[in-house]
């Protein structure tokens, strides 16, 4: 499947970009991205969406972490990096994945970018038109931890514990996103991914090279 001309890398290229990025900033974010990608592909498939596209977007949604340990900075860096490579669909996901209410002020973490960069993000976020892929990656970002898949409430509680806050509006929207996709695919989201959870945990231990076998 060649989707290079549509603002998306191939799956192989996306995996290469993630591997490269992890070498620059070693951490658990790579496996988190793989879990997000995996959930996204499975839910997309159940909903009649493009599962390859969902997988690629999930894999690269946090690619801005390549440039170091940052908070809002990872959104900006990922957005600019993907634009620079012509991967406009990924750039949009890098921008939208942290803002389920399309509101930059809801960001949980430091605003560690310059005022000009913040303005740039605000404008880009304002004009973005969310589609089901934006919504899917937002949901899956809340499902995919570094070492497996968790219930979204559990992950939101964990974020709240780590940052000391979690906006209620954002919490409620994540629950609504789950309901939205459950309505779309007429299945419980956890049932869709539960059958894969054991394998995901096993493969996380075995090594990321095996991830391809699961897709
Ligand atoms: Fe993420």
Care to describe what's here?
By secondary structure, this protein is mainly alpha-helical. The protein has one domain (11-210): Orthogonal Bundle (Hypothetical protein af1432), CATH 1.10.3210. It has helices spanning 11-24, 29-47, 51-60, 72-84, 88-96, 115-127, 132-143, 152-163, 168-185, 189-206, 211-214; strands at 144-145, 148-149. The protein starts with 10 loop residues before the first helix and ends with a helix. 39% of the residues are buried. The structure holds fe (ii) ion. Fe (ii) ion binds next to helix 2.
Question: Could you outline the blueprint of secondary structure elements for this entry?
Answer:
Layout: H1 11-24, H2 29-47, H3 51-60, H4 72-84, H5 88-96, H6 115-127, H7 132-143, E1 144-145, E2 148-149, H8 152-163, H9 168-185, H10 189-206, H11 211-214
Antiparallel strand pairs: 1-2
The protein binds fe (ii) ion.
């Amino acid at each position: 499947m060649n989707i290079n001309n549509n603002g998306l890398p191939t799956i192989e290229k996306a995996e290469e970009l993630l591997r490269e990025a992890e070498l620059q900033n070693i951490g658990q974010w790579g496996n988190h991205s793989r879990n997000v990608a995996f959930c996204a592909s499975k839910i997309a498939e159940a909903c009649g969406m493009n599962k390859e596209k969902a997988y690629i977007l999930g894999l690269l949604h946090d690619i801005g972490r390549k440039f170091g340990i940052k908070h809002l900075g990872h959104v900006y860096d990922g957005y600019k990096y993907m634009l620079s490579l012509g991967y406009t669909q990924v750039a949009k996901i890098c921008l939208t994945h942290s803002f389920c209410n399309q509101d930059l002020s809801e960001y949980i973490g430091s605003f560690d970018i310059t005022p000009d960069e913040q303005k740039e993000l605000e404008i880009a976020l304002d004009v973005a038109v969310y589609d089901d892929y934006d919504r899917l990656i937002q949901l899956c970002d809340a499902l995919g931890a570094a070492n497996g898949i968790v219930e979204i409430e559990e992950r939101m509680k964990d974020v709240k514990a780590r940052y000391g806050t979690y906006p209620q509006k954002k919490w409620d929207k994540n629950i609504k996103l789950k309901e939205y996709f459950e309505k779309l695919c007429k299945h419980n989201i956890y049932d869709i991914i539960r059958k894969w959870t054991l394998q995901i945990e096993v493969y996380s231990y075995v090594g990321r090279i095996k991830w391809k076998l699961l897709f």
